[in-house]
C-alpha cells in the first residue's frame, strides 16, 4: 500500500461500460480513485505513470489493450519500480497461469485466493452463470465431469459494450439474435475449466433488444446423471453451496423467467426446474450481465484485494 491512508485505484478504461459501473460502485468503498485526464486516457506514458502510483489497477479494456496494460505492469516490475496489483475484467487472462480467476462464492478458499493474489481475472458474464450452476454439482458428483452439457443463454445488448449499445439504441434492434454459431465463443475455455467439465460444452448465446440482464439455462436428462439423482438433490446441493451468500440465492423453481428482472442489481438467482416423471431438469441462472456478470463481481474482488469490507450488494 502507498503512504495514503486510503488505498488508491486506477480504472484503465474508466469511460467504458464496465469501467463506469465499477467507478459508481467504488463510491461505497474508502478508496482514492485516480483518473487520467480524458484527453490522455489512451496515452501509454500517462497510463504507465498512473499504474506506478497506485495500489490497484482495474482493467476494463478490450482484450488486446488489457494485454498491453499487463505488459506495462510487468515492465514496471522488471525495471524494479513499484507495481500495482491487477484486476482484469477482460477475457485475456482468465485461463492464464499465474492468475487467480473467479468470484468469491465459486468454491471454498476462493475468497482467500483472491485476497492474496497479485493478478486476478474477473469472470465472464455467461461463465458466472454456467460455473455458478455447474461447479457445485460437478464437485458434489451429481453431474458427471463428462456429461454432454449444452448451455443456452440470452444477454442484454450492453454485453457487447459501447459498440453494441450504440447499435441497438441508434438502430433499434435486432429484437433477438443467436450468435457464436461457429461454436468457438471466447467464454468456453473458462466455462469448461472452472465448471470441472472434461468435454467442451455446446454453447448457444443470444442477445435481445433490452439493455441489461441475462439468463443462462442448462437442460439435463436426469437418467444420464449419477444413478438415482433427483432434481431435489441438485437443488439441495446448490442451496448448501450458496448458504450465507448475500448475492447468490437458490429460489424455488418457477414456470417462466424474464431476463431483465435483476437488471441494476449485483445478485444472481440459481434455480432447478424439474419434471421427475420425464426425468428431466433445466438449471437456470439469472443475473445482470453488468452487475454480478461484471462490475458487481469486480467490486467484490476489489474489496477482497484491498482488505476492505465488501459493500452490500445492489
Ligand atoms: N459489457 C459486459 O457485459 C461485460 C464486459 N466485460 C469485459 O470488460 C471489458 C470492457 O468491456 P466493456 O466495458 O463492455 O467495453 P466498452 O467498449 O464499453 O469499454 C471499453 C473502454 O476501453 C477504452 N479503450 C479501448 N482501448 C483502449 C486503450 N488502448 N487504452 C485505454 N482505453 C482504451 C474504450 O475507449 P473507446 O470507446 O474510446 O475506444 C472504452 O472506454 C471487455 O474486455 C469485456 O470483455 C466483462 C464482463 C461483462
Ligand atoms: C452480448 C455480447 O456480445 N456479449 C459478449 C460477452 C460479454 C463480454 O464481453 O464479456 P466478458 O468480459 O464477460 O467476457 C460476447 O458474447 O462476446
TrEMBL record:
Biological process terms in GO annotation: L-arginine biosynthetic process
Record's function text: Catalyzes the NADPH-dependent reduction of N-acetyl-5-glutamyl phosphate to yield N-acetyl-L-glutamate 5-semialdehyde.
Location of the active site: 125
SMART domains: Semialdhyde_dh
Enzyme Commission number: 1.2.1.38
Catalytic activity: N-acetyl-L-glutamate 5-semialdehyde + phosphate + NADP(+) = N-acetyl-L-glutamyl 5-phosphate + NADPH + H(+)
This protein's name: N-acetyl-gamma-glutamyl-phosphate reductase
Broad EC category: oxidoreductase
Pathway connected to this protein: Amino-acid biosynthesis; L-arginine biosynthesis; N(2)-acetyl-L-ornithine from L-glutamate: step 3/4
Record-linked PROSITE patterns: ARGC
Key words of the record: Amino-acid biosynthesis, Arginine biosynthesis, Cytoplasm, NADP, Oxidoreductase
Subcellular location: Cytoplasm
InterPro entries xrefs: AGPR, AGPR_AS, AGPR_dimerisation_dom, AGPR_type-2, NAD(P)-bd_dom_sf, Semialdehyde_DH_NAD-bd
Keyword Transferase in annotation: no
Classification via Pfam families: Semialdhyde_dh, Semialdhyde_dhC_1
Keyword Cytoplasm in record: yes
Domain Semialdehyde dehydrogenase NAD-binding: 8-114
HAMAP family: ArgC_type2
